Protein: Fructose-1,6-bisphosphatase class 1
Amino acid sequence: MTSLTQFLIEEQRRFPQASGDFTLLLNDVAVACKAISRAVRRGGLSGVLGSQGTENVQGEVQVQLDVITNEIFVNALNWTGRYAAMVSEENDELIHITDGNPKGEYLICFDPLDGSSNINVNLSVGTIFSILHCPQGVEHPTEQDFLQPGTSQVAAGFCIYGPATVLMLTTGNGVNAFTLDEEIGEFILTRPNVRIPEDTAEFAVNMSNRRFWEPPMRRYVDECVQGKAGGREKDFNMRWLASMVAEVYRVLTRGGLFAYPMDEKIRDKGGRLRLMYEANPMAFIVEQAGGAASTGYERIMEIQPGSIHQRVPVILGSKNEVERLAAYHRDAN
Ligand code: F6P
Structure:
């Protein structure tokens, strides 16, 4: 039985020069995820289901648990001395470390409760995070310091609160999944070296947007729907959970293609999903598991961010299907 703590310390030993900070900062995130898991699991017992009556920077209605889980995450990391600043989906501006607390060498971008519209219907939700180095010599990070491409991430992961709470983590050396053993309060390694099959017969997309999609996306999905009767040599199955963590977890378990592509309704926003705390961390995990992640036009991790809440189209999952869809985008051009 390997706990997350043991796993991180063993990873750290591979780098004799490591200070141990990196191990601790991932541990901080794990503690935050345990606290969020507890808050989510209590459901209606805490009397915190339902809308907060406010909107976040994205113009989305906040549920009470968006706000509560954001506070849990920030409070768990604010005092540790391992972060220099944070970016959250729920805050317009950067979150600075409270004056008087020590500052560390890392930046973190996170979505405390992804898929939170699913909370009231009791479906899986999750926390997504992406860790970057704070540029050297920067004492007071600004938005500019966060605007690093996904290829600069030093670690990324997500924690899914489903039938089990599972932390999926990469530090750039493959992907490992840890299941929370609630009785001992530890994440235990349950799926070492997660790999995504290169081929799949399953796709996930919000089909109600079909008429707004660009032609390459319509072509791809229409062919999947036609299956053997069309040009493809197999029939496809479709899933849509409206919870990115749950979709990506499924892709990491049995393969598949997940897409929130560009469409005409959201073109002026740049896409639907957020680059810094949704697309980049998921792209890092998926690539590390042998999959691919693209906007259709470019590799997600190579996008130079222009703002902390930037949105992008996302197509990720089994490599051969992502590449096929990217090829359809090239053909259309
Ligand atoms: O904010 C992101 C998110 O909740 C994702 O988790 C999910 O994939 C998507 O939005 C769902 O979008 P829609 O409501 O259009 O199905």
